[in-house]
Amino acid sequence: MNSSLESKRDYLSASEYILQNFEAIDRIAVLVRDRRAGETIQRITTAKNAASPEFQAWLRHKNICSDVYIGMNALKRDAQSRTKEDIETIRHLYLDVDHNGPLALEAIENSGLVPRPNYVLETSPEKYQVVWKVEGIAQDQAETLQRAMVSEFGGDPAATDSTRVLRVPNFVNRKYETQHLVGARAEATQTYHLEDFRLRTDAHDGPLHREAPNEGGRRNPPGDLSQSERDWAFAKRALARGDDPEEVIRRIADYRGDDKHDPIYYARLTVAKAQARLEKNIDHGQPEIAEKIDVKH
User: Fold this and answer.
1) pLDDT-based confidence at 1, cuts 50/70/90?
2) Looking at the domain assignment, is residue 207 inside a domain?
């Protein structure tokens, strides 16, 4: 695995990447987010259309001031949003590595616990998104495996949701002051199955990892934040990356169902508070605050 991704001749185009990762008739979510304007647009369409010259031209136009993402799992035929209930087929497992990227890639390659990835995307210098093509894996199994990979190799614990959107190659990452063209290298060609992943998963079977991320994406020392503060930070991150508010509410309610008298009410209050804070940051021209809780890389 080449962690530097320096050979641009090996980079995939966005259209190649989409068509290699999905069936032409798969319905997928494509998301563009303008952080400064606080605008998120999501389009649900077929993989064939998303890879078309016309759609790609629209994405390049939006990329002038927006970031471009794609949902990594296929949606149901009648899906109008990108919630867990909308997922029809798990197409990928993935890991979002934002710290010690080269070391993490080396660990993945040498561990024997996971197969060779199909794609490695360099989303900014020494920050990567690692993607495996899979089939026959259930949604809960996929999320459990992704949480286990975060524990084993490091990465963003918030990037374990099956509705996650990742970067698209050959579009500019505009999150940071220095722009970066996202590159994707193809590695393995096979499609993997559950038995190809040998990670221990019994400690990672909850709907959300108990070591929830803080706003910088790092784990918190025990007792550093209350669970309510972690829930609020999670809600802000999920909303900022374009997740459906109702899905965020459901996930928090599921997670807190054992220790809250009315978890739905609590979750709605938490999400409403997070939405208000995001809107306040945008209105007051504080993009640096929103960036801390936005889509990784």
Assistant:
1) low
2) no
